[in-house]
Amino acid sequence: MASCSRQLSKLFRIVSLRESVVAMIDRLNQRGVTLTELMVALAVLAILAVMAAPGFSDYFHKARMRGAGEALADLLTEARTEAIKRDRQVAVSIVGSGESWCAGARAAENPSQGAMIPPAEPCDCANGNACNIGGNPMRVVSDDFDSVTLASNQQAIVFDGKLGTLTSMTPTRVTLTGPEPRFSLRVEVGPMGLAALCVPAESAPLSGIGQCP
Prior knowledge:
single chain; alpha+beta; minor pseudopilin epsh fold; four-stranded antiparallel sheet; about 20% strand; elongated; disordered N terminus; cell inner membrane; cell membrane; Pilin-like; N_methyl_site
């Protein structure tokens, strides 16, 4: 919250300064402009641009990273829900690293007559048509989140069809980093299969998201 307040305060100061410059230019237009006055106005506008650039850049960097994290968390939550609803395993693949990555989900295939439901197999998330459940696309790709990098400790996880737990019971951690390396975000999936967003200890704070345990 403190970080957000500082950003808002900075933006208010920039807006106030901009309004002063606009008023100055209006007055100059009414009575004519000297070269000195024009140079002063241009200098102030240049200062405004320098002040605004870092704040707006950070805002968009964090927005892309947060968007990727929320999309991944939503995919994992929906995959778990589908596993319980369909009473069969759902596998989620998390493939790639750096700025080229994807994630996708697929449920276990229908069994042949009289046979047991087979285990779920991870889909090829690089193939746009391979990851779906019941005809609904289940895929997140890095192309939608420019310059956001990904690192994961698991390439595939499987949700149990009875309780929605992870079949391996091994926690999954997917770390996303934006173009500004000061900011990173983690999607954690515990043994119970619940996905949550948190901020790693090494990252600068992100408004509304708690620190990872």
